[in-house]
């Protein structure tokens, strides 16, 4: 089963950065095709991590609370609880079995190398990089709306 929490959080953060004004949980929920309660729960965790700020009252809503150039995808990944990257694991039913030991050692080494590469890549991309990529895509398709309320 896929865990799209990181993708959803990045999606929300970029919409907030592009908006230039506070956004409500309802607006963000429409963009994600989900319930505002789900969005508020996600945003509460991001607020606790310092990534977003909640404004109350008339004209209130959620805004970005960080410099996009200083936040990497790895930072956001860690803030959402570092979801498991791979569902693949290994057997531990016969720990004394030498075949099982050999298989598990190979899988452990391979998965550790893959996780290290993913971590390195996430650390190399900032929210500002994502925002700039979005801007390039929008300029290439000037008649396409970036707001996609479902």
Automatic annotation (TrEMBL):
PANTHER family per the UniProt record, alphabetical: HTH-TYPE TRANSCRIPTIONAL REGULATOR YWGB-RELATED, WINGED HELIX-TURN-HELIX TRANSCRIPTIONAL REGULATOR, RRF2 FAMILY
Coiled-coil boundaries: none
Protein's organism: Hydrogenophaga borbori
Bilayer-crossing regions: none
Alphabetized GO MF terms: DNA-binding transcription factor activity
Name of the protein in question: Rrf2 family transcriptional regulator
InterPro entries: Tscrpt_reg_Rrf2 (IPR000944), WH-like_DNA-bd_sf (IPR036388), WH_DNA-bd_sf (IPR036390)
One cellular component term from this protein's GO annotations in UniProt: cytosol
């Amino acid at each position: 089963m896929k865990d799209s929490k990181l993708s959803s959080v990045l999606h929300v953060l970029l919409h907030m950065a592009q908006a230039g004004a506070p956004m409500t949980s309802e607006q963000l929920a429409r963009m994600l095709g989900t319930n505002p309660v789900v969005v508020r729960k996600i945003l509460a965790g991001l607020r606790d991590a310092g990534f977003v700020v909640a404004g109350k009252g008339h004209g209130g809503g959620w805004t970005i609370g960080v410099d996009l150039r200083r936040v990497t995808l790895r930072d956001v990944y860690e803030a959402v609880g570092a979801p498991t990257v791979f569902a693949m694991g290994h057997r531990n039913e016969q720990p004394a079995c030498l075949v099982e030991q050999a298989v598990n050692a190979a899988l452990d080494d391979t998965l550790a190398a893959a996780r290290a590469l993913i971590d390195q890549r996430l650390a190399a991309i900032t929210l500002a990089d994502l925002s700039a990529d979005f801007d390039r895509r929008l300029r290439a398709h000037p008649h396409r709306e970036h707001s996609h309320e479902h």
